[in-house]
Amino acid sequence: MKRLNALIFNLICFLIIPGHSLFSQGTSQVSATGQIFAEIIPVFSASETAQMNFGRFSPGPQGGQIILTPQSTISVIGSVFKGPGTHNAASFFVSGDADAAYSVSLPSSPVILTHMTSARTMVVNNWSSVPAPGIGTGMLQNGYQEVYIGATLNVGTLNDNPVGIYTGSYTVTFDFN
After folding, report:
1. What is the pLDDT of residue 162?
2. Binning pLDDT at 50, 70 and 90, where does residue 21 land?
3. Between 71 and 14, the higher pLDDT residue
4. Most exposed: 18, 48, 102, 120, by fewest CB within 10 Å?
5. What are the residues facing 104 on neighbouring strands?
6. Closest among 94, 25, 26, 83 to 54, alpha carbons compared
7. Quick one: average pLDDT of 150-159?
8. Edge-to-edge strands of the sheet including 173-176?
């Protein structure tokens, strides 16, 4: 009997105490948990892996042109005589998100090579690349691709271009689409 009385007393207290009444009309709150996501993707980057090298040559009496293709083949126009040694197209290692498309932009104006000890110069123009320049022409299969670049070197006479080493630099832009 004591038990029954205690149960009845607890029930009455529960119904009478404000906030705990079954008949109370207070506000209700509901909580839910949301999820947050963020993904870090590989940084797009490009770095030169091989420098453009037109090789060794002699200008001849009229000068001419040395055409270096992106596949590293070379042809000579005019009185330029190709010498012994190596030549190669430039190459760039481009990396980033797998299967990302990108564009290649080659120099739009000629680049000047300057003789290391004199003020004599040669001009590099007619740039080409594999993949070809343009919007979305490159694709990072497995997150990387090698880009090869060629150009034409315009050579003057021996008087215009004395013996020695000529250097210069250029900018290639990779725009990730």
Report:
1. 94
2. very low
3. 71
4. 18
5. 134, 174
6. 83
7. 96
8. 134-139, 101-105, 173-176
Whether residue 114 contacts residue 133, with contact meaning beta carbons closer than 8 Å, is answered with no
Cα 22 to Cα 26, 42, 95, distances in angstroms: 10, 58, 66
Please list the residues that pair with 129 across neighbouring strands: 149
Residue 11 is inside which H or E element, if any?
helix 2-16
Residue 36 in tokens: 């947050």
3-state secondary structure of 74: strand
Maximal C-alpha separation, the chain: 128
Task: Decide: helix, strand or coil at residue 142.
Answer: helix
Q: Can you tell me the distance from the alpha carbon of 83 to that of 156, in angstroms, rounded to the nearest whole number?
A: 16
Q: What's the token pair of residue 127?
A: 């740039």
- 3 state SS of 90: strand
- Calculate the dihedral angle through the C-alpha atoms of 127, 90, 79, 63, rounding to the nearest 10 degrees: 60
Question: For 60, left (φ over 0), alpha (ψ -120 to 50), or beta?
Answer: left
